[in-house]
Write a structure and sequence with these properties.
Keywords: Amino-acid biosynthesis, Cytoplasm, One-carbon metabolism, Pyridoxal phosphate, Transferase. It catalyses: (6R)-5,10-methylene-5,6,7,8-tetrahydrofolate + glycine + H2O = (6S)-5,6,7,8-tetrahydrofolate + L-serine. Its EC number is 2.1.2.1. It holds the Pfam family SHMT. By secondary structure, the chain is an alpha/beta fold. It has two domains: about 230 residues, Type I PLP-dependent aspartate aminotransferase-like (Major domain) (Aspartate Aminotransferase, domain 2, 3-Layer(aba) Sandwich); about 120 residues, Aspartate Aminotransferase, domain 1 (Alpha-Beta Complex). The chain has 16 helices and 15 strands. The strands form four sheets. Strands 4-10-9-8-7-5-6 form a seven-stranded mixed sheet, with helices on both faces. It is globular. The termini are close together.
Length: about 425
Amino acid sequence: MPLDHPALAAADPAIAQLIAAEERLQADTLRLIPSENYVSAAVLEATGTVLTNKYSEGYPGRRYYEGQQNIDPVERLAIDRAKALFHTAHANVQPYSGSPANLAAYLAFAEPGDTVLGMGLPMGGHLTHGWGVSATGRWFRGVRYGVRKDTGRVDFDEVRDLARAERPKLIFCGGTAVPRTIDFAAFAEIAREVGAVLVADIAHIAGLIAGGAHPSPVPHVDVISTTTHKTLRGPRGAMLLAVREEHGKALDRAVFPGLQGGPHNHTTAAIAVALAEAARPSFRDYAAQIVANAKALAAALLERGFDLVSGGTDNHLVLIDLTAQDVPGKVAAKALDRAGIVVNHNTVPYDPRTPFDPSGIRIGTPSLTSRGLTVEHMPQVATWMARAVAASRTGDEVTLKSIRAEVAELMAGYPAPGLG
């Protein structure tokens, strides 16, 4: 059921119609992009409030604008909730998104030209971990580690050898296509040996960590960077957390005035709401269900002949290599989209194809879990995917249309949070 936007419909019918169309699309499709989710009605309401009218450069108690009587308490609530949820000494809730948050870590602890060690993008890392096309790879000297070809898991011998040889100022662990548990302790041992600041990018798994479904980076790492959407189920924002207070001031200076002006107060409020939701017992059930669904879906895909990077998953994410299916990732992703199953094409480790036309697709279970689907539904999801991928190979649009109707029928029985 589309939400009611009377003022918007009157002022700008074109935009209102597009938003209504997106609401319908999010309601009747099976969203499997691991970085997407549904926020609660409360988070959605907080995002669209009069707090967007207020400028608030600086930090609580130290602003450059007056009239912060309500803004400072909002930000303090978000900070206190973040520290309590992740058990850190310091939190900054102002970064606009994950990439600026990561860039702030560079600004806080490195100088242009310094060496940084991060997972290579084709191996599952993120652009901002020193990849060449990113500002982080142009302004800093990026050195990349990967995964073992035989296991699809991080090669810690390679990480240690690179760290000893290159002596990086920063080491990043985490990424965007990592289906296995991150061994924060192993990274910490290497970082301590070479005197590097260790940054855990937990953007994808923050909700799993908050809900106890993935080991925490605390106390192993120095800095934690995360977005606030994805598994954490908040608005599109970001946070920087310092495990020890000694790193907090440098992070704050890097965010403001180093990279940004005024924070987005409506987003800060929505982050505070999401953090309060994540502290409830029900959130632990949700986080555990995400992992259970992902493992069940991975098992069902293996049964249907799919090749999975690392052979499965420990978290919310499954990376599928379609080489044996004889279908490029982009072709499969577009066909799945027409079938009402939303994924993204993705490179796989040691991919012989280009990032614009890769061999794989990346899927995840946060969104379907937020809608109430459980492990009993995962064999059906895998069957739909197998049918759609086969149809993409032959151009069978009739089958894709049929799957689309079946998906919509299932989704009708599991209303999306925040969409009425």
